[in-house]
Amino acid sequence: MYVKIITILIFVTVVSGFVLKPFDGKCVTDAYPPKSSTTVPNLTINLDLPAHDRWKEVAIKYKDSMKSLIGDLKKLVGSVPVVGDLIIKIIDNEFEKIIPTLPAPYADELLGMADYSGINRGEILLYNIFYEVFTVCTSIIAEDKNGELFHARNLDFGLFMGWDLKKNDWAITEALRPMIMNLDFQKNNKTVFKSASFAGYIGVLSGVKPGVISLTLNERFQLKGGFIGIIQWLLGQRTAKWSSFLTRDTLTSATSYQMAKTELSKTELLAPVYFILGGTKSKEGCVITRSLNKTDNIWEMSAAGGWYILETNYDHWLPPLFIDDRRTPATLCMNELTQNNLTMAGLYNVLSTKPVLNKLTTYTALMQAKSGSLETHIQKCPDPCWPW
């Protein structure tokens, strides 16, 4: 698995003309506040509506962007040697048959998204599947001197998905940035939870439930990865949950940090991931390292150095891939920040430091469970910048 990843990353490095340089030790200190142009729109998802109609506003408003992005995804899939054309035919003609097999309310929500946007149902499913296996991120939970917890993350997406030689950027990543939004999921006109998301995506990768938890999902690279789980689902083995659906379910139903930790630890999954979970009380922060059928490790913030816990896409007890080390610079910058100076602005600066900030970064989200706040900003790494 690592050999394949290294080969592809080296190829992108060569064709982009970029020379990988070691982290220079300089942490960004002035990125916050970001420009107003980075602010994302806020939309409401009314959970009192029938599932089919909940995403109507998003589907109509962003249908052209969704169609364009799905077209790019299909081009990438179609370019796969030997089987590309066959996969496209399956997507167009067979994928929609899978949607009714999804659990409620997700099947009806996807059907509604397709109906209101006019996009092929199979393509809507394809669009939602890709987030299960291509999300590369950095997540941090930190506690200040007063015991207040903060949760921040970079969402990096688009690895291996079309390097644009002219723009020196990932094509899918660039297409996603205008589609970023904050969603307020409400019931009875009250917030159930909030999430930072992409138009057309019904799962949750970053979210906060006011007064209860904050939660992010990072991909975990394993040989038995998300593709295996998806294939098992397509073949009829459907006991596992989609990772981003479990995240959303947990944000919907959890009434405590401990309840969320139990649910995220014990539920069978379609893809290996890291759940980064924060609460409202001192030391309520952990990284739950998941494989498909079990939890391999729960790393508590108290064991990670006391005042923060930091996860990229590698098991914390192992070194990161040598050409994808975002952990070391992020850790150095957190230690330079210090607990005494911890603020949301400080976390944003850490996440704006290269290569923590890189060509794959789409947004930075800043959350706090206690207050229920969610602040999301579009990110675009200026050249020279690491491809990942």
From TrEMBL:
One of its GO terms (molecular function) is N-acylsphingosine amidohydrolase activity. The keyword Transit peptide does not apply. Its EC number is 3.5.1.23. Residues 137-373 form the Choloylglycine hydrolase/NAAA C-terminal domain. Keywords: Disulfide bond, Glycoprotein, Hydrolase, Lipid metabolism, Lysosome, Secreted, Signal, Sphingolipid metabolism, Zymogen. Pathway: Sphingolipid metabolism; Lipid metabolism; sphingolipid metabolism. Residues 39-90 form the Acid ceramidase N-terminal domain. Residues 1-17 form the signal peptide. It comes from the Eukaryota. The active site is at 137 (nucleophile). It is found in: Lysosome; Secreted. GO terms for cellular component: extracellular region; lysosome; membrane. It is an enzyme of class 3 (hydrolase). GO terms for biological process: fatty acid metabolic process; sphingolipid metabolic process. InterPro entries: Acid_ceramidase-like (IPR016699), Acid_ceramidase_N (IPR029130), CBAH/NAAA_C (IPR029132). Belongs to the acid ceramidase family. This is Acid ceramidase. It comes from Octopus sinensis.
